[in-house]
Amino acid sequence: MSELIIGSEQPLAASYPLALVDLDGVAYKGPLPIEYAAHGLNSARATGMQLVFVTNNASREPQEVADQLTGLDIPADSSEIMTAAQACARLLQDHVPAGARILVVGGAGLITAVREAGYEPVFSANDDPVAVAQGFHPSLGWEHLAEAAYAISNGAQHFASNLDLSLPTARGFAPGNGALVGAVQSATGVAPLSAGKPSPAMYRMAMEKAGVTDALVVGDRLDTDLAGARAGGLHGLHVLTGVNSARDDILAAPENRPHFIARDLRALQETQPRQGREETWFTSGNAAVTVRDSRLVIAEHDGVDELDIVRAACCAVWSHVDVGGEFDSSTIPNFVTL
């Protein structure tokens, strides 16, 4: 059984020396700010918590990302940005000799990272690359994916900055790098090595850079941000401002489960309630939840915060399904305040 939702008697910013913060869906959504993101992050930094922004987006240079954050009232330096492009270049160093030609399928951020790692970026399979580094950029088209497929079919190794199937934008969710990688994989039959989340490699790199051995992962996606936290032995905070919902938390597989759940980044300056158990009932704040006959049962109580219901429901459902119990997901209520 995996660890359940946990509590914190101190504000999270005082409990962890570093926050590893995702960008899309957490700090911003496309070009738009997310409510309370600037307040939460700036307040956490003011109380001594270090911040490193860790993103699966490989299309942009760290300075460009830092400039966007600063423009959204979240002052940031390029040294506080860890991109999947940088992680992909680091992964190349584990497998490809320095100075080799790398076919880069991606944006300026990936090109720069590959070059700074000691490789020669090329853009055609005719240049005999020994590897393909693939990352997302909105300008990518069929011809770029075709060059990758040609190179891989000729024996080049395939490396992906990340495998996110979708990408949050101001208009909704669009195909992500994983969808484009899937097209190349379908054409070649070769599965790539991936550097991005849910691999904890970027988290380790960021902690080493910050000089700490522990950190709080903050993200909106269970299968990348929070799965990376579990894989790296770190605690994860799921904020409900992006991809995954409170319902997703309750139904999460063990490897994707958060340790904390919050509406937004104000949670960094807040304590987190401890969960309790009384026989088959799990409690959080004033909420009490159990699973009975495969159904979620919520005790009636005035003034219950729906977020506490979610926390208690996670503990009840996870404990039930992890020992082989069946659960009827249709009994999860529609949460109106989350």
Automatic annotation (TrEMBL):
GO molecular function: hydrolase activity
UniProt KW tRNA-binding keyword: no
Presence of keyword Chloroplast: no
Alphabetical keyword list: Hydrolase
InterPro entries membership: HAD-like_sf, HAD-SF_hydro_IA, HAD-SF_hydro_IIA, HAD_sf
Official protein name in the record: HAD-IIA family hydrolase
